[in-house]
Design goal:
It contains 14 helices and four strands. The longest helix has 31 residues, at 203-233. The strands form two sheets. The protein has a two-stranded antiparallel sheet. The chain starts with 13 loop residues before the first strand and ends with a helix. It has helices spanning 43-57, 62-71, 79-92, 127-139, 141-151, 155-166, 177-186, 190-193, 203-233, 257-263, 278-291, 300-310, 314-341, 345-353, and strands spanning 14-19, 36-41, 175-176, 243-244. With 354 residues, the chain is mainly alpha-helical.
Length: 354
């Protein structure tokens, strides 16, 4: 391996970093095949060194990991974690109503459940969106039916999930999974995040925030490691280029990297699990649901628990079920209309004689 690295750190001065890597001499090079020379400030070491060291301790090649962070031009984004922490902390310490949060005659402290038409999922209930999803299932019927036969998940539920998760593959996220997950994992050093938090005005609030961040940053680190393994398994795909949602979900089915590793399916047999193609995304989605208990004789309650595992939101579950029901109705209506318009056996015999 021909690798030269020059790190020179001085307070307030630029750090000149030159990383030379030859891909053919590195076992897992993520497609690295050229050299980079970047100038970074001292902040690079402050933010990323602990994370880089942790990955190296867990078995990743130091040169490769350093090159990923340097050449990607990664920028620490504290907002991803800060906005979540502030929202949860404010909710945790919000004043309680005098009656304990219970409305008159209520026995459970739960907010009223709004109709789906008033929820964030209302877009997906529009008739033209449902019709679009129906056309999509017809266009890709072979893939959906193949997954249905292999995993037992009806087409309408597969399509409903893809519709909500990525608008049938048209919205795949405008972030980079590597940067998102690295930024969240780096907040294991709470002092990097604290200046960006608005909710830690008391010692109790700060302690609550620190405890949450410790758990969430560990989750992000695990997902970052899974992303690297996923990219490595996909013929050394470059992990820094994979698009994602704000929390690192990837592909048409919006899997977290750990789910991509555990439930991803190589549907077209090309030796890769590419969740940005329908060939792999559809069977991967169906496999996930099957592995979480999907079967043909599910009760509604059992089905909802499986959908909840996909996205921990009861409103999400209601939306998926409603969309699937509407898609099924459209399909049944179309089949019924086709059967009605088709000539009877006697009529076909007459037509054939003519």
């Amino acid at each position: 391996m021909n690798r030269g690295c020059l790190f020179h750190a001085g307070r307030g001065l630029a750090v000149a970093i030159t990383v030379w890597l030859i891909a053919l001499s590195i076992p897992f090079g993520f497609g690295v095949s050229r050299c980079w020379a970047l100038s970074q400030s001292e902040d690079f070491d402050v933010v990323w060194n602990d994370l880089v060291d942790r990955l190296v301790q867990d078995g990743w090649d130091k040169g490769i990991i350093e090159s990923l962070f340097v050449r990607s031009g990664i920028v620490f984004d504290p907002k991803i974690m800060a906005e979540k922490v502030d929202a949860l902390t404010e909710r945790r310490f919000a004043p309680r109503p005098a009656n304990g949060g219970k409305s008159s005659g209520s026995t459970v402290n739960e907010p009223a459940v709004p109709p789906l038409e008033q929820s964030g999922y209302r877009y997906y209930l529009k008739p033209w969106v449902i019709a679009w999803a129906r056309t999509y299932t017809q266009k890709n019927n072979e893939l959906f039916e193949k997954a249905h036969e292999a995993y037992g998940v009806p087409t309408e539920f597969q399509a409903a999930i893809l519709l909500v998760e990525s608008k049938l593959g048209s919205t795949l996220g405008n972030r980079k999974a590597f940067e998102v997950l690295s930024s969240m994992a780096a907040t294991a050093n709470f002092e990097l995040l604290a200046p960006h938090l608005q909710s830690i005005s008391t010692a109790k609030r700060r302690q609550y925030a620190q405890e949450y961040v410790a758990k969430r940053s560990q989750w992000a680190y695990s997902e970052l490691a899974a992303l690297l393994h996923y990219a490595q398994a996909n013929k050394n795909q470059d992990p820094t280029t994979i698009p994602s949602s704000i929390y690192g979900a990837i592909g048409i089915c919006q899997f977290l990297p750990s789910n991509a590793l555990h439930y991803g399916v190589d549907g077209n047999g090309d030796g890769r699990i590419d969740l940005f193609t329908l060939d792999d995304a559809i069977p991967s989605l169906a496999n996930y649901l099957k592995e979480h208990g999907w079967r043909s004789d599910l009760t509604e309650e059992e089905r909802d628990k499986i959908l909840y595992a996909y996205n921990h939101s009861t409103t999400y579950v209601r939306a998926i079920s409603t969309i699937a029901s509407q898609l099924k109705s459209l399909s049944e209506s179309a089949n019924s209309a086709a059967a009605t318009s088709a000539p009877s056996g006697a009529a076909r015999a007459v037509l054939s004689r003519n």
